[in-house]
TrEMBL record, chain A:
InterPro entries: FTHF_cligase-like_sf, LUD_dom, NagB/RpiA_transferase-like
Occurrences of domain LUD (ranges): 50-230
The protein, known as: LUD domain-containing protein
UniProtKB/TrEMBL annotation, chain B:
Full protein name: Iron-binding oxidase subunit
One biological process term in Gene Ontology: lactate metabolic process
InterPro entries xrefs: 4Fe4S_Fe-S-bd, 4Fe4S_Fe_S_CS, FTHF_cligase-like_sf, LUD_dom, LutB/LldF, NagB/RpiA_transferase-like
Domain of life: Bacteria
Organism encoding this protein: Lacticaseibacillus nasuensis JCM 17158
Domain 4Fe-4S ferredoxin-type stretches: 303-333
Keywords assigned: 4Fe-4S, Iron, Iron-sulfur, Metal-binding
Keyword Metal-binding (UniProt): yes
Gene3D superfamilies in UniProt: NagB/RpiA/CoA transferase-like
GO MF annotations in UniProt: 4 iron, 4 sulfur cluster binding; metal ion binding
Length: 233, 490
């Protein structure tokens, strides 16, 4: 704690005419439940359709595949992109998707974001990756957003430095909107089950309207994004 | 660049802005485009008024219990390994960061767009360090930096006043050889800045919301530069205004949705991130993390008539609906915070001697208040500024005061008022002249006045005043006659 903290906080209390340490008796209670009730009650099929519509609206290529067909779907994606370098996470979800054999034989030979490797090595792998295939935690139907929490095997820059990016996401983790995702992360963090330092909500490829308000897709982050929803996962 | 970036008098800035026809067209185009996008995204969400009430409630609750939320946030951020510094002034904040950069022997700084770092003039403070390189990485801020630190004109679209040819010229100076296509120029900036990101040893960001109960910092961007700034450099500095708190991730989620819709008409921005010090086992993200919480005049708003200005979430929607901003652009205001919010906030931060003109840069139409996602009564606060300023600076004891007193007497005394409206037509004969009727002046058949004396002169500097109609044709006479006819059943 630095010396000026108390003086600063006391000055606020004095200026506002309100004493400190009143919050515990007046915790925030939202006056409505719109964040929870908006888009509530949709069926899984409706959520998938909504996710597709809203993802495509933010320039995402939206694909679906059954888990059994996933290796073929990913190989087709790579055949189209023709990457010289491929980055994968060190993430047990790849095995859960049944991709253990596919990653051993895929071309180009993947580089990995490796837990315990140096900052330089992992950043270099991401910066030189033509394509990254990442594991997303959730997909938000309302906005076409994937969510990812940083892990030792899938770092922050994994999602930002590669040129092209594909996110794998299970259909069972499509939720109506950001509130459900936030409820999940909030509960996981507070229960100590999630120890991440960083959570990203990513809605399509990077973009800018800074030059004459003309939409430019692909600025600092990936130039394009693909979401591949695994329909039976 | 501090809060005020121009020493020129307000009227000189206005005159210059009036000459800038490209800027005026660009602002008009941007306002119209944003109107459509913003309205559509709010309508799609539904129940917008109730969302506004929730947004207002969150922000008012935070401001009410501000020291408690700051304490909670600082405790939780420190538990995660962050260093939290409270700065009362811009100079204190900038000096802290400069000393940190010197202590760490920082050579390459990358920054993502942040109004508060502009407010504390951080770039210039850091560039005093010999050999240090600093790059703004937001595309617009990068353009301004490469144009010899040109002034921003909008809090969300800082380069609104520049066209593609001007940007092409700026980029040509740093090696760009392509055409003026925005896509091509953006790709050039990507390549140019990528190298800087990879060698950066300090990253500096702003903060959209600091989350009290997790100690995390929420940043929303579209380009991805903010997240690279938070991922690559081992040292990161977050600079935030002292009011930018939310109780938990849930309230951040509410405000992020409202911010994206209000600022750019998106449901969420491309990147919406919540971050802190790199956790054990993670190989990127900052291992040294400093959060600088800045007062710099914000406390002036506490406990007084302007406290609601601290609810602001910096969406810029009020700029995008303001007819005055449409006419004079950001540079007319001379503050890094232009538009209605700037006209309220700038005098709070720096006083009336510097920004006393700004509360008058308003038509009081109320469009800003109506669009504000957190229900700041902006036009009422502008009126309040005028009142407080008159009292504080003991202004207007001369002719204007006499004129206002006379007007007050005339309009407050029925006999004088009725006499006035019975003779106003003939009394204004010498001041009036007639024009050929057009669609624009069709209802001004009694003539127009192009130059009026005293306080009324301000009106006729930029528009004509219709000559009052004859007493028998004025509204009161018409209404009286209409009422009689109505009562007679005709």
């Amino acid at each position: 704690m630095n010396d000026n903290r108390e003086a600063f906080l006391n000055a606020i209390a004095e200026k506002s005419g309100r004493p400190r340490h009143q919050l515990q008796d007046h915790p925030f209670q939202p006056l409505n439940d719109l964040p929870e009730t908006t888009l509530a009650g949709k069926s899984p099929a409706e959520l998938l359709a909504l996710a597709k519509q809203n993802s495509e609206a933010v320039h995402v290529t939206f694909l679906t595949s059954a888990q059994a067909d996933l290796p073929a779907a990913l190989s087709a994606y790579l055949a189209n992109q023709q990457p010289k370098t491929l980055l994968l996470p060190t993430d047990e979800r790849l095995a859960q998707y049944g991709l253990s054999d596919w990653v051993k034989q895929v071309t180009p030979t993947p580089q990995y974001w490796v837990p315990g490797a140096s900052r330089e090595d992992n950043l270099n792998a991401a910066a030189t990756a033509d394509v990254a295939i990442g594991c997303a935690d959730m997909l938000l139907a309302e906005s076409g957003t994937i969510t990812v929490a940083t892990t030792p095997g899938q770092g922050r820059a994994f999602h930002f430095l590669p040129t092209h990016y594909l996110a794998l996401v299970p259909a069972s983790r499509i939720v109506p909107r950001s509130r459900q995702a936030m409820d999940y992360y909030d509960a996981e963090l507070k229960a100590g089950r999630l120890t991440t330092s960083n959570i990203n909500f990513i809605t399509g490829p990077s973009n800018s309207g800074d030059i004459e308000m003309v939409l430019v897709v692909g600025v600092h982050g990936p130039l394009d994004m693909t979401y591949l929803v695994v329909t039976d996962a | 660049m501090a809060i005020a970036y121009s020493d020129k008098p307000f009227k000189v800035r206005l005159a210059e802005s009036e000459q800038d026809t490209f800027m005026q067209k660009a602002v008009a185009k941007a306002q119209d485009a944003q109107w459509t996008k913003r309205t559509a995204s709010r309508n799609e969400l539904g129940h917008w008024e109730q969302w506004r009430e929730l947004g207002q409630q969150i922000r008012q609750h935070v401001v009410r219990y501000l020291p408690d939320y700051l304490e909670e946030f600082a405790d939780n951020a420190e538990k995660r390994g962050a260093h939290v510094y409270f700065a009362r002034t811009d100079k204190e904040a900038a000096a802290y960061i400069r000393e940190l950069a010197e202590r760490k022997h920082v050579q390459h700084v990358v920054k993502s767009k942040s109004m508060v770092t502009t407010e504390i003039d951080l770039d210039q403070e850091l560039l005093k360090i010999p050999g240090l390189s600093l790059l703004e990485t937001d595309l617009a801020e990068f353009i301004l930096q490469e144009d010899d630190w040109d002034e921003p004109t909008h809090i969300v679209f800082p380069t609104l006043h520049k066209n593609r040819d001007q940007i092409h010229e700026i980029f040509a100076k740093i090696g760009y050889k392509g055409d003026n296509d925005p896509q091509h120029m953006a790709r050039f900036a990507r390549e140019y800045l990528r190298a800087s990101f990879l060698k950066a040893d300090m990253g500096i960001t702003g903060c959209n919301f600091a989350v009290a109960d997790t100690g995390m910092v929420n940043l929303v961007t579209n380009e991805g530069n903010g997240d690279l700034t938070m991922a690559i450099p081992p040292t990161q500095v977050v600079v935030m205004g002292m009011e930018r708190l939310v109780p938990s991730l849930k309230e951040a989620e509410v405000l992020d949705n409202m911010l994206a819709r209000s600022a750019v008409g998106q449901k969420l921005t491309s990147y919406c991130s919540f971050s802190s010090v790199a956790a054990t086992g993670e190989s990127d993200g900052p291992t040294e993390y400093h959060i600088v919480i800045v007062d710099n005049g914000r406390m002036n708003a506490l406990g007084g008539p302007f406290e609601e200005v601290l609810q602001c979430i910096r969406c810029g929607a009020c700029l995008n609906v303001c007819p005055v901003y449409r006419h004079i652009g950001g540079h007319g205001y001379g503050s890094i915070y232009p538009g209605p919010i700037g006209a309220v906030l700038s005098p709070v931060l720096r006083g009336y001697k510097q920004f006393g003109d700004l509360p008058f840069a308003s038509s009081l139409c109320g469009a800003c208040t109506e669009t504000c996602p957190v229900k700041i009564p902006l036009h009422s606060l502008l009126i309040k500024h005028r009142e407080v300023m008159m009292n504080e600076l003991h202004m207007d004891t001369g002719l204007n005061k006499v004129t206002y007193k006379a007007l007050g007497l005339a309009t407050g005394t029925p006999a004088i008022f009725h006499m006035g409206i019975s003779v106003d037509h003939s009394m204004t004969a010498l001041l009036s002249h007639h024009q050929e009727p057009t669609a624009q002046n069709y209802f001004m058949g009694d003539g127009i006045m192009s130059k009026l004396p005293f306080i009324l002169g301000g009106w006729t500097v930029i528009r004509d005043m219709p000559r009052p109609p004859r007493a028998k044709d004025n509204f009161r006479s018409w209404f009286k006659q209409h009422k009689q006819l109505q009562e007679a059943g005709r």
